[in-house]
């Protein structure tokens, strides 16, 4: 399972021995090994900072670490430790940067693929709702992409759709054939059963994120009656089996206050979620509607709430629209990730439905060198304010430039397609200008220690 050099393997094997023996007692030793494995100075700094937090007896991060170390099934603990912390991060990232220099194109940290467009739900405003719901990415293509990704140092394969559990057999085959990679499906959770959980335990390299819209009322309103209780049952199955999993939530105008509530996050923690991914609603997919977008005040509320949770709740939270300071802005366009839809179209982002290349016809390296990806990357970051990272809702004029320069085609169905300039004008007037004022106010009022460190080490 260890896709690393001879120098790394003994350290990883020692860490696995500590994990199997007395992981809580051995925490200081595990952190020490992590620092030895880190070859980049910024990674060493990050490992030390994480270590301080985990060793603090009063820290919420220590509470999370102990829960994961003591409640996770041994095979899953091994798979996560090796594939996420070692292969993906400490070993994979330096390799990605080195190959990027050699190849002259950015090499991403993760690949997002859709095995199918099919879904058993019909959620309002779904970003993938404009797809035909019939196309599927062949297993052979996904298998090849995983192989090519690993050669580039990419060990995190994110899986979406459609509903990836509609194609769970394909996911199991991929995870079995590529034990050095971690597979991270975004799922509605309704099709995960005892049999699939058993496969997760056997393989050790699948960690799902389950989509919720808040509590029962909000989730059922968008996803269908009874869905929330099915999700709660699925989380119970995963927690009791010792799986590592989390939640994914989209905050919009009608549910932000619920998602920002302690009742919501405490429920997710109690159900066993180790992490949570937060997205803000963007007007793409089925029935795009600017009126559903969270207001600037609501996005500001999420900014404050997530930062409070990070100092108090035993769960790892990322807000992809408010955490640009930790990633130096937008990560899409092949810079740190890209999206391959079920038709094989290679898109800069799951929310940017434009493409030039199809993975069925080209290698991953060729797609990374696409004029579309290059047009994206040369404009990143899209704004000096890291609270305005997105070229779709925060800097819509940039997306217009990218599409015009690259000549990319729309991958949306005709009835859902909106011309880039028309969409940009609509978003800019109805949202962007208002958020810009709020974002600049927040950015100027807060310190950004991690962001400054990232800039220093990246040379930007």
Question: How is this structure best described in words?
Answer:
The protein has 460 residues and is α/β, with parallel strands linked by helices. The chain has helices at 8-21, 27-37, 41-55, 60-71, 74-103, 139-151, 168-177, 194-203, 216-223, 227-241, 256-259, 262-270, 296-309, 364-368, 371-377, 396-406, 420-445, 449-458, and strands spanning 110-113, 156-159, 182-187, 209-212, 246-251, 275-280, 316-319, 337-340, 346-347, 354-355, 409-410. The protein has a nine-stranded mixed sheet. Strands 10-11 form a two-stranded antiparallel ribbon. Helix 7 (168-177) links the parallel strand 2 (156-159) and strand 3 (182-187). Helix 1 packs antiparallel against helix 2 (27-37) and helix 7 runs parallel beside helix 8 (194-203).
List descriptors.
alpha/beta; 11 strands; 460 residues; nine-stranded mixed beta sheet; two-stranded antiparallel sheet
What is this structure's SSE topology?
Blueprint: H1 8-21, H2 27-37, H3 41-55, H4 60-71, H5 74-103, E1 110-113, H6 139-151, E2 156-159, H7 168-177, E3 182-187, H8 194-203, E4 209-212, H9 216-223, H10 227-241, E5 246-251, H11 256-259, H12 262-270, E6 275-280, H13 296-309, E7 316-319, E8 337-340, E9 346-347, E10 354-355, H14 364-368, H15 371-377, H16 396-406, E11 409-410, H17 420-445, H18 449-458
Helix pairs in contact: 1-2, 1-5, 2-3, 3-4, 7-8, 13-17, 15-16, 16-17
Order of helices and strands: HHHHHEHEHEHEHHEHHEHEEEEHHHEHH
Mean pLDDT: 92
Per DSSP, the total helix count is 18
Coarse morphology: globular
**Beta-sheet strand percentage?**
5-15%
Largest sheet: 9 strands, mixed
Number of strands: 11
**Cα Rg:** 21 Å
Determine the structural class based on helices, strands and strand pairing.
alpha/beta
State the end-to-end CA separation: 35 Å
Catalogue the unreliable spans: none
Strand order of the largest sheet: 7-6-5-4-3-2-1-8-9
Percent of residues in helices: 40-55%
């Amino acid at each position: 399972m260890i896709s690393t050099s001879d120098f790394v393997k003994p350290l990883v094997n020692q860490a696995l021995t500590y994990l199997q023996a007395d992981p809580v007692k051995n925490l200081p030793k595990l952190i020490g090994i992590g620092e030895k494995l880190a070859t980049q100075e910024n990674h060493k700094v990050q490992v030390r900072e994480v270590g301080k937090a985990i060793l603090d007896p009063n820290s919420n991060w220590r509470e999370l670490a102990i829960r994961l170390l003591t409640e996770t099934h041994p095979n899953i603990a091994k798979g996560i430790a090796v594939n996420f912390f070692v292969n993906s991060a400490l070993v994979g990232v330096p390799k990605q940067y080195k190959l990027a220099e050699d190849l002259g194109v950015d090499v991403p940290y993760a690949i997002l693929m859709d095995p199918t467009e099919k879904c058993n739900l019909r959620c309002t405003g779904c970003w993938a709702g404009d797809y035909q719901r019939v196309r599927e990415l062949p297993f052979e293509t996904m298998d090849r992409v995983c192989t090519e990704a690993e050669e580039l140092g990419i060990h995190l394969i994110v899986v979406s759709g459609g509903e990836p559990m509609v194609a769970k057999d394909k996911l199991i085959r991929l995870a079995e054939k590529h034990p050095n990679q971690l597979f991270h499906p975004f799922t509605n959770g309704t099709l995960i059963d005892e049999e699939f959980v058993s496969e997760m335990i056997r393989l050790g390299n699948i960690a799902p994120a389950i989509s919720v819209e808040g509590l029962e009322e909000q989730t059922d309103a968008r996803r269908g009656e009874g869905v929330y209780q099915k999700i709660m049952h699925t989380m119970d199955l995963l927690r009791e089996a010792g799986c590592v999993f989390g939640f994914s939530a989209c905050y919009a105008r009608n549910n932000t206050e619920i998602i920002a509530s302690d009742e919501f996050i405490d429920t997710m923690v109690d159900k066993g979620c180790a992490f949570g991914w937060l997205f803000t609603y963007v007007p793409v997919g089925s029935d795009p509607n600017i009126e559903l977008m969270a207001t600037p005040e609501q996005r500001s509320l999420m900014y404050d709430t997530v930062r409070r949770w990070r100092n108090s709740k035993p769960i790892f939270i990322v807000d992809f629209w408010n955490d640009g300071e930790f990633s130096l802005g937008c990560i899409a366009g092949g810079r740190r990730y890209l999206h391959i839809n079920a038709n094989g179209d290679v898109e800069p982002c799951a929310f940017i439905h434009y493409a030039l290349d199809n993975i069925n016809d080209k290698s991953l390296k060729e797609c990374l060198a696409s004029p579309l990806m290059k047009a994206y990357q040369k404009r990143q970051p899209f704004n000096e304010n890291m609270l305005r990272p997105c070229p779709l809702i925060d800097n819509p004029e940039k997306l217009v430039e990218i599409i015009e320069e690259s000549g990319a085609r729309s991958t949306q169905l005709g009835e859902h397609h909106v011309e880039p300039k028309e969409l940009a004008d609509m978003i800019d007037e109805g949202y962007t200008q208002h958020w810009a004022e709020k974002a600049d106010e927040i950015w100027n009022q807060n310190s950004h220690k991690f962001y400054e460190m990232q800039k220093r080490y990246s040379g930007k």
